[in-house]
Amino acid sequence: MDRRKLLIGGGAAGLTATGGCASLIGAGPADQVVWRFGELDRLAAPLTIEGAPTGVAGPASVRGRAMQFDGVADALFIGRHPLAGASTFALEAVFRPDGGAFEQRWLHLQSDEVVAPGQTPVGTRFLFEIRVYGDQWALDAFVKGPTYNQTLLFPDRLHPVGRWYHVAQTYDGTTYRAFVDGVLQGEAALAFTPQGPGRASVGTRINRVNYFNGAIAEARFTPRFLRPDEFTSVIPG
Q1: Among residues of the chain, what percentage have pLDDT more than 90?
Q2: How far apart are CA 184 and CA 136, in angstroms?
Q3: Judging by DSSP bridges, how do beta strands 65-70 and 89-97 pair with one another?
Q4: How far apart (Å, rounded) are the C-alpha atoms in residues 187 and 139?
Q5: Largest interatomic CA distance in the chain
Q6: Is the pLDDT at 12 greater than 80, yes or no?
Q7: Using an 8 Å Cβ cutoff, are 94 and 216 in contact?
Q8: What CATH number labels 25-228?
Q9: Phi and psi (nearest 5°) for 211?
Q10: CA 146 distance to own-chain centroid
């Protein structure tokens, strides 16, 4: 297996990676962090690339570029948790699942917990996963912390693989919700508390299992609640 690893420091470090890139930090509201995965030459956090993810065409609504992950070894590891400290939030992404393994984790935000000797970390985190059922998939949104542990997975809400989707998970202070193309998939009451600083993985779980087969164009992290009519405008395709 060709397992290439490249570490980039913070700031405007240059990178000629795969597929031609320009910038991972995108424009948005002042309090919003945007990661564009078809553009990798600037990142205000350490970045490690593993495997050989490649640049591919993406939706025109996100500048037409994306990053393809092979479901085997391709991944990004980013030294930042963009929703650390947020008491309400909206986490949006534009991606294209291409089928494959049943369980795939493609965005993972992990808090770096400090625990006393002998204690086990809670595993405080945000996740975006999918479950694949033949040529269809269901969204799996998940959040866990000291006072909460909630999955939003609804296998009866299936979508065809091989096309672009906008997905989101939100919290308004009382209710946790998941959306596909602005349509509610499900919701649950949640006693959420803000997460601490940490790190992220893209294309795999943070411990390098459940790799993603497909492409990801961008992710947006807003430390406040957004309604579906305030989500990024994306034309599926």
Answers
A1: 73
A2: 18
A3: unpaired
A4: 13
A5: 51
A6: no
A7: yes
A8: 2.60.120.200
A9: -65, 155
A10: 21
- In tens, the pLDDT along 30-85 reads 889 999 998 876 666 789 999 999 999 998 777 778 999 999 999 999 999 999 99
Across the chain, the runs of DSSP E, i.e. the strands, are 5-8, 33-36, 47-50, 54-57, 65-70, 75-78, 89-97, 103-111, 125-133, 136-145, 148-153, 159-160, 165-171, 175-180, 183-189, 198-202, 213-222
Distance CA 14, CA 8 (A): 8
DSSP 37-93: TT--S--SS-EEEES--EEEE--GGGTTEEEEEESSS-EEEES--TTTT-SSEEEEE
Q: Where are the domains of the chain?
A: 25-228
What band does 21 get if pLDDT is binned at 50, 70 and 90?
very low
SS3 110: strand
- Exposure string of 154-172, with b = 16+ CB inside 10 Å and e = fewer, is beebbbebeebbbbbbbbb
Give the pTM: 0.86
Q: What is the mean pLDDT of residues 148-174?
A: 97
Average pLDDT of 122-140?
97
What would the two tokens of residue 34 be? Answer: 């945007």
Are the C-beta atoms of residues 176 and 190 closer than 8 Å to each other? yes
Query: What is residue 217's predicted lDDT score, i.e. its pLDDT?
Result: 94
What per-residue confidence (pLDDT) applies to 27? 53
